[in-house]
Structure formats: structure tokens, C-alpha cells
Specification:
The protein is mainly α. Helix content is about 75%, strand content about 0%. It is built from three helices and no strands. The protein is elongated and about 55 Å long. InterPro entries: NDUFAF8. This is NADH dehydrogenase [ubiquinone] 1 alpha subcomplex assembly factor 8.
Length: about 70
């Protein structure tokens, strides 16, 4: 069981770095937020896939951040 401590230590270290890695997606998050905001402003209508391009960019950024966190990449 003593080996489990080392594993959990690595897991905790990776999880601590996750918010920092997500912060790198600020531009994508802002672009998606602007698109949704513009679509829900008075007179706007939010429709499915209206902000799909912005959402895909944000999703890709989050996925890349998660991958770096899981693999311990930089």
C-alpha cells in the first residue's frame, strides 16, 4: 500500500495544475462568451450551433489543457 502514496501525490500535482492550464484558454472562452452574449442580447436569438465555431475552439483548448495535465506535459 505504500506505493499508493506516490501515485496519489502525482495525481494531486496534476490536478493542482489544471486550473492554471485552463487559464490559457481565456481568449477562446471570451470569444465564446461574446458570441453567446450577442445572441441573447435584446433582439437576438440563441439557436443551436449559432456559436459552434467558438465553442469548438474552446472545447479543443480545454481538451488540450486536460491532456497536458494528465500526461504531465508542459
Amino acid at each position: 500500500m505504500s506505493g499508493n502514496g506516490a501515485v496519489w501525490g502525482r495525481v494531486r500535482s496534476r490536478l493542482r495544475s489544471f486550473p492554471e492550464r485552463l487559464a490559457a484558454c481565456g481568449a477562446e472562452a471570451a470569444a465564446y462568451g461574446r458570441c453567446v452574449h450577442a445572441s441573447t442580447a435584446p433582439g437576438g436569438r440563441l439557436r443551436k450551433d449559432l456559436c459552434a465555431q467558438e465553442f469548438e475552439a474552446l472545447r479543443s483548448c480545454f481538451a488540450a489543457a486536460a491532456k497536458k495535465t494528465l500526461t504531465g506535459g508542459h
